[in-house]
TrEMBL record:
Domain of life: Bacteria
Keyword check for Transferase: yes
Name of this chain's protein: Nucleotidyltransferase family protein
Cited Pfam families: NTP_transferase
Domain Nucleotidyl transferase: 2-228
Family matches, as InterPro entries: Mannose-1P_guanyltransferase, NTP_transferase_dom, Nucleotide-diphossugar_trans
Coiled coil: none
GO molecular-function terms, A-Z: transferase activity
Length: 240
């Protein structure tokens, strides 16, 4: 199995950590988040991973040169972009994708079963499968419901809303790459809805996995705390 990790962002919301480090190398506990992800991929028998890199990419390459225990177990390729073309647009440069493959953000800490989501994707013959997480959003205000003339027809005091949100982890049918043009900006939501509108199967994958990202300082601290508490769940024993 093959995977692609989007690891080229500047991570500006995670400053000052990302002033000297690319976000994928920011440590969660004792390990960079990117190493945790790759260890998980090895655990699920992935044999090849492509890193889509940009900001401070030489540091990422230098890090894995010093980690032969990892590179001896999984082939790591690098594709760099001088001008970002989006979370889907960058995939136009991929080659040799002849079977379903995983794409994920390089700042995700999760216990998702990658083997099972790929099986789900294949069983349903999807063009795209999106790992989803149930997110509870609390609004600490009174929310008014109005009609077309601004008459109040409902009043919700501090409601709790529930949403199915993307985990930033996707399974692609390789045919989806035919809809991505080299050098043109394309984000994932636009690609997904374009495929839906063309009649292709795009499904969400429901699961109970733990999921955090490290996009913001608060998220990073929460992820670090969760990792230290549940290290055995996030970091499988891959003898590395």
């Amino acid at each position: 199995m093959k995977a692609v990790i989007l690891a080229g962002g500047k991570g500006t919301r995670l400053a000052p950590y990302t002033t000297v480090l690319p976000k994928p190398l920011v440590p969660v506990g004792d390990y960079p988040i990117l190493e945790i992800i790759i260890r998980q991929l090895i655990h699920h028998n992935f044999k090849e991973v492509t890193l889509m890199v940009g900001y401070l990419s030489e540091l990422i390459k230098a890090y894995f040169i010093q980690r032969p225990s990892i590179t001896n177990k999984i082939k790591i390729n690098y594709i760099g972009e001088e001008t970002p073309t989006g979370t889907a647009g960058s995939l136009a440069w991929l080659e040799g994708m002849d079977d379903s493959f995983l794409v994920m953000n390089g700042d995700v800490l999760t216990t998702l079963d990658y083997t099972d989501i790929i099986k789900y994707h294949r069983d349903h013959n999807n063009m795209l499968t999106i790992a989803m997480h149930k997110k509870e959003v609390k609004i600490d205000l009174g929310v008014l419901e109005l009609n077309d003339t601004n008459n109040v027809i409902g009043y919700l005091e501090k409601p709790v809303m529930n949403y199915n949100v993307s985990m930033g982890i996707y399974i692609y049918n390789p045919k989806a790459l035919e809809f991505i043009k080299k050098g043109e900006y394309l984000d994932f939501p636009t690609l997904a809805m374009d495929l839906v509108n063309k009649g292709y199967s795009v499904m969400g994958y429901d699961n109970n996995a733990k999921w955090l990202d490290i996009g913001r300082i608060e998220d990073f601290h929460n992820a670090t705390e969760a990792f230290e508490k549940h290290k055995n769940l996030f970091l499988p024993n891959t003898d590395l």
